[in-house]
Amino acid sequence: MQPRLIIDLNAVAANYRLLRVKAGPAICAGVVKGDGYGIGAEPIAKRLYQEGCRIFFTAGIDEALTLRPHLRDAIVYVLAGLCGAKPVDFSAQSIRPVLNEAGEIREWAKHEAGNCILHIDTGMNRLGLPPDALKYVEGLKPDFIMSHLANGERPDDAKNAEQKAVFDAILREFPGIPASLAATASIFMGQGYCYDLARPGIGLYGGNPFTGRPNPMQDVIRIDAPILQIRTLAKGETVGYGATFTAGGGERIATLGVGYADGFGRPFDNCGIGELDGYRVRLAGRVSMDYLTFDVSNCPENMLRIGKFITLLGGPVPVDEALNAAKISPYHFFTGLGRRFNRQYISD
Ligand SMILES: *Cc1c(COP(=O)(O)O)cnc(C)c1O
User: Fold this and answer.
1) Is the pLDDT of residue 311 over 80?
2) Residue 204: CB within 6 Å of ligand 1?
3) In the chain, which segments carry CATH 2.40.37.10?
4) Ligand 1 atom with least separation from CA of 31
5) Residue of the nearest CA to atom 13 in ligand 1?
6) Per residue, what are the HEC states of 291-338?
7) What percent of the chain has pLDDT over 70?
8) pLDDT digits over 93-143, tens only?
9) Is CATH 3.40.50.2000 the classification given to domain 9-205?
């Protein structure tokens, strides 16, 4: 009895359409790095292509090469840049690099002037050329100038406006070249942040781009796990490693076949939530590698059957609510999903 991971590609499409409307008139790309945030880059990219998405971002060139055959005339950009590969490895496959540093800019410029993005760092201090190093880009004709915000998930943070001001000053040095700044969160901050190309990732997958605000996106994933065994505890008995849950007496505990090897990590210890036929249930004790233990005492006895599935996330348990209960971000949770699920893609 495997746990199920159901992925609703119609919801991915609906999320893309919402982001595209909000970003308009900017073009809306799709960020499918990290195997589509752990949810499946290939089926997701294909569905986005069907919806009209023609610009994709991957992390490395390997991810881009895997997707390339499925995306016909779309442009695939690689966020990590050349990363040791040769310029011809990119151009021969119609894959384009995001150029982040001086050495690779020179290497690319020897090969061709265009078909690339120039990434300027405006305060993230991760990748990208510092604003005072623009001398390295002479002769380069990038498709877009881009930058990335450090605090997009907090729209009111002053750092967003500071980074935007630095970005605007840089753009004045590149008249006529299109620009790209917004990831999912900043698409909702208004058109001032969208420029010519928006680069949403997490929102496509239903993740809430904001901390502490309602989720504007539709849930994409649903996880159901089977009940393997049910027991009744006497007062003072404990559950699981570390004995962190102690019974008051009479609790019904259901052991589910899913655990941290599947992505339900320590943040869910004593914090996970789930639903069984309309009844909310709570995780009791620590998460194990292959099992979760749920207190199902509030469910009518005739519902408690081995082989029944409890929904842990999605459907009746909003993804945002389940992840907030465990204080884990959708980025971490989605990319940590394991490979043992029976994955089912829903699409019309
Ligand atoms: C991951 C990433 C994105 C997408 O960010 P989300 O918050 O997932 O929408 C956009 N741009 C860059 C440079 C990224 O690394």
Assistant:
1) yes
2) no
3) 221-346
4) 4
5) 148
6) CEEEECCCCCHHHCCCCCEEEEEECCECHHHHHHHCCCCHHHHHHCCC
7) 100
8) 999 999 999 999 999 999 999 999 999 999 999 999 998 887 778 889 999
9) no
Ligand 1, atom 3, lies closest to the CA of 183
CA 8–ligand 1 middle distance (angstroms): 21
Instruction: Clarify whether 241 is annotated catalytic.
Output: yes
pTM of the model: 0.96
Sorted by sequence, the CB contacts under 8 Å of residue 281 that are 6+ apart come out as 254, 273, 274, 275, 294, 295, 296, 298, 299, 310
Question: What was the pLDDT predicted at 348?
Answer: 87
What would the pLDDT profile of 180-210 be if each residue is shown by its tens digit? 999 999 999 987 999 999 999 999 999 999 9
pLDDT for position 211: 83
Q: Is the beta carbon of 299 within 6 A of some atom in ligand 1? A: no
Closest residue (by CA) to atom 6 of ligand 1?
Answer: 201
Kindly give the number of the ligand 1 atom that is closest to the alpha carbon of 204: 9
- CATH 3.20.20.10 range(s) for the chain read 9-205
Q: Does domain 221-346 have CATH number 1.10.10.10?
A: no
Write the single-letter amino acid at 247. A
